[in-house]
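Let us practice reading a record.
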Amino acid sequence: MGTAMTLASTLQHLTGCIRTEQQEQPESGSLGSPQRQKDEASQALCTVAQGLSYQVLSRRGEPMNDGVPVPILPDGMGCFPGKNGNVILVRNHEISPVSGQPSPFPELAYDPNCIGGTTSLVVGPDLKVLDQRVSLTGTHRNCAGGPTPWGTWITCEEIFSLPPGTPGGEAIDGLITQKHGYAFEVNPYATSLQKVMPLVEMGHFRHEAVGVDRLTGIVYQTEDSGSSCFYRFIPNRKAQLHQGGQLQALKILEADRFHTTQQKMEIGKQLPCQWVDIPVPDPVLETVHQQGQERGAAIFVRGEGLWAQEDGIYFSCTSGGSKGYGQIFRYVPKDLENGTIELVYESTDQSLINPDNLTANRWGDVVICEDRGVGTNRILGLTPKGKLYEIATTELSEWTGPCFSPDGQTLFVNLQDVGATVAIQGSWDQLRPII
């Protein structure tokens, strides 16, 4: 199996709630035989572990309450408590501009020529969708993001693009009118669509995911690039990100430009680190990571999933590690200037391939979505003692947007290529390996 540290001390505080190609399989512990579940159309979308079942909540193309069809390519997603036992899901859609397809609400769009954004779903205790509508429009390739302690969703554009005639970047002539590559804040409780402007000082780069430290309000960010940095944004005013702040990149003190794949890292070894300022967070050219690395910032290979907890900030590097199968890190702040980073897990075989989106369940297990591209993609649990177990598999799509209901009993997740949002429920306590 892949290499892992003993995680009991580092993951003991994790909870599963958001409150206010075929490959060799890992050991399955007490999983038993997976049971194939079918949706109402008798089309098997996935296999879930024994004791679990799934239900399809939403599919691409279905009409929503605002008259717009459910968009394609659902990605990052957050779950928020609603009234009367309902929950609210805010769901990204990783859509690039398409010629002849403007925003369905151009007057409320950041960029009228872009059809990306988010949709919000109100889901009842019986898993019936009570309402479904566009909650952000006019953005470009909304990939991951993360919830905030103050009850909003930050959605991120995984792109660096510029309007026509601007040198550099990834310009898409004639299809965009604004710069793209920003984070946006969405209010899950808004009763009508609002025009949302970018959080410019959080950086102009290929954003992936975010996580917010509850105590300080500092926002941590990953970047999906082969030579990315790990960032944090210190807001001028806690919970008011539009008031601006300072963008910084992580520096490992052992060496300038420490490369977390090329330089050997010992599982569980805590490396002291500090932060360096990014002087120009909104550059014309794609230079944010270069600015950080010129000042000694560490290099990560495709930073993606991120989950903030009491005992640290966990994030995945999808193609990191000696085999390129992926790594999971934990950053622990010591004070506003100093902290430590450690390698929690590195896959050295096919027990885990390309970890992407992360969340956590109520037992303290990290829940991981694989992004293998083709073949079988899985949702895996990683226990505090470093044991992997299988939750669900599919041959149809990448899994995206995992998030648990406030009571920890329902895992909401997307099958991106299928364009479906599903809820997984069942006997979670029987799922984990016997330790």
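A brief commentary: The first strand starts at residue 3 and ends at 4.
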